[in-house]
Amino acid sequence: MTARVERTALTRSTRKSGPRSQPIERRPAPFSLRCGALLIDYIVLAAILASSTLIARMFGGGARAAGNSTETVGIVVAIAAAILDLGVLAGLTGRSIGKWATGLRVERNNGEQVGLGRICLRHFVGYPLSFLTLGFGFLLAAMTSRGRALHDLIADTIVLREGPSQPRRP
Q1: 75-80 — which CB contacts under 8 Å span 24+ positions?
Q2: Which of 27, 48, 123, 126 has the lowest tally of Cβ within 10 angstroms?
């Protein structure tokens, strides 16, 4: 009974405003796109750390001098970028940089927008717990029918993919 209700809540169609409005269908995100979104978020943070290390090596004059200020600034900038990307941006829009690039959105399980508190619970508590289970928390998304991982279950969220509605076959 609840699976039927949840499934109908996910497949509801809305219309975009504009000259070419077409129905939009929201489906649970495929596991591969979720992995791609996480990879893009990771690449952004790793690029900040790598560029700060390169700058430190070019201007530091040696390995000891390079480890002090520039790399520390890079770590602080990477932490700030992670908080802004995974916390603030995702809390306000439902999308991190990676989810925006892959066309995914995080919403509450009942279809409402996710807030800052719930997204912080999902990313800063749920993600580490998913890692601590040796990645099983992430693989749970590939094994469940609605594609919810451990961090989604903790924060009562779901990751959706929005796309054009396809005609249903009888």
Answers
A1: 75/49, 77/48, 77/52, 78/45, 78/48, 78/49, 78/52
A2: 27
pLDDT in tens, 89-114: 999 999 999 999 999 999 999 989 99
The first and second tokens of residue 96, run together, are 């991190």
Task: Report whether pLDDT(62) > 80.
Answer: no
Which residue's structure tokens are 């700060």? 52
In 3D, which of 118, 119, 111, 120 has the Cα closest to residue 146?
Answer: 111
Give me 137's structure tokens: 């928390």
The tokens describing 154, both together, are 């903790």
Is the pLDDT at 8 greater than 50? The verdict is no
Rounded to two decimals, what is the model's pTM?
0.76
